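Project standup — Tuesday

K.O.: blocked on the structure for the chain from last sprint. Re-posting the sequence here as requested.
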Amino acid sequence: KLGIDVDDIRKVNPRIVYARGSGHGPKGPDADRPGYDAISWWSRGSLNQSAMDLAGLDWPTSGMVGHGDGMSGLVFAGGICAALLNRERGGDPMVVDSSLLGTAAWFNGLEIMDWSGKTRKPPTSAAQRPALPDNVPSELASATLAIYQTSDFRFIYLLFLTNDDRDFADLCQRAGRPELAEDARFATRKERTAHSRELMAIFDEMFAGRTFEDWKAVLAEARG
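H.V.: unblocked you, prediction finished:
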């Protein structure tokens, strides 16, 4: 739409090194979907599973904030430099692609290879959410930035970075719980923050009521 794809740019400058960063790479069903560090890098990129295996956990963990963004950016910069050097030495101008998902898979390549040929048994019972210490303030226990388990014992990482009121209302509507957006405890970002533990308990029950595939369809077009 903006006229800045590879072919458009090459019409202006055929020697340009074209670089594009994404959440999930240029191919596949999620190519055009937004990507986030905690989702595309940590969760879908297999790093979370490795952390769970090493620590013997049955509930997913949250990665370091911005860790995947930084690492993927370094790989991206390195790819651009290599493409520029290639062009300088007479090679054809290149297209450089870097994604959060792809970089995570590369970083965790040894673990992924170790899983090859092995069968993982899916969980057959609900896991227990790790208890938050009493001294953790409610505002640090965000219900809209948390992991939930579905009825078939799989996990969803809910990631609403801005915790916007419109996004929350849209989520509640899609989930079949529109009354939550009207509840005085959750109607605004400030109130959701103050009552995040209560909302998390409600969300735990809500997400546990449907399968992963059901929620995947529900959340596919959600705002936020």
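K.O.: great, moving the ticket to review. DSSP finds eleven helices and four strands in the chain. The longest strand covers residues 18-22.
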